[in-house]
Amino acid sequence: MSLFERFQSLIILVAIALGFLFGRVPVISESAASFITPFLMAMLYGVFLLIPLNNLRKALKDLQFTGLTMGMNFIWTPILAYALGYLFLRQAPDLWVGLIMLMVTPCTDWYIVFTNIARGNVPLATVQLPWKLLLQLLLLPLYLFFLAGSLIEINSAVLLTSIAKVLIIPFALAVATRHLSCAYMKDKWLEEKALPIVSYMQFAFLSLAIMAMFASQGDALIQNPTTLLKLFPPIILFFIINFIIGQAIGGYLKYSYENVVCFNFTTLARNSPLSLAIAISAFPDRPLIALVLVIGPLIELPVLSLAAQLLLFLRKRGHWA
Length: 321
Description:
Layout: H1 3-6, H2 8-22, H3 26-31, H4 33-49, H5 56-59, H6 63-88, H7 93-103, H8 110-117, H9 122-146, H10 156-184, H11 189-222, H12 227-252, H13 257-268, H14 272-282, H15 287-316
Helix pairs in contact: 2-11, 4-10, 4-11, 4-14, 6-7, 6-9, 6-12, 7-14, 7-15, 8-13, 9-13, 10-14, 11-15, 12-13, 12-15, 13-15, 14-15
């Protein structure tokens, strides 16, 4: 893990603090909201550009592993997220919706980093990435209608318009950029020259979006100081339950240690920036939904670090051949 990656949680906290500070300035607080969606669209363009869609076929070579990870992420996880919300957040429907949005979108970057830290099968993790992205783009509207729709009022036209604007446009631009770079630029120019810069820029735009969000909606968020305490139990339980299930499946199927690590992180890490873009665009009058998607990574990253160390400890103790 690079020095930059180690300090991403701290950078997010600084962005939150600066957002609260700038929100004290009337001119900034009144105009900050208009910058959130453009910043998130720029961030998602970078996310989509980094994903090698040509790996779609490669994932099908290990159909069992791919099928299990997709089933865990897109069938089991939505059920678990809804159940945890029912147990802990029934009196806070906005937080419940935010929890669902956080959990139903599997990660498209951090899980590879932590797979590598725990000495897992990074190539196998990488080929899962395009399927995880495409399925969450297709299924997120359905999860919102069927799971979140029973908790809050959802305007179908606004939701679909928001998805088209903040997801489909950046995705189409990323695909076009890859196509044009292959057609007109030197071989591997995109991978060797552009993408290393893009990876830093996407996080910069995410930080700017978070700063703008807290600058424009800081007052509403300050009124809910116990939010973090309410979210902590269901988020921690999500990681514990899925980790145990991942270990059990890996043991039952006699996966190698490297593949168990890969399976664990493909089903643990979440993609909060993508959901954050939808939440801000589709639910602008419900800032608590977006707040869950900002707080989520602050809990998630330390937990993933602990999971990586636990897996290394188990391997050292000889639990996996």
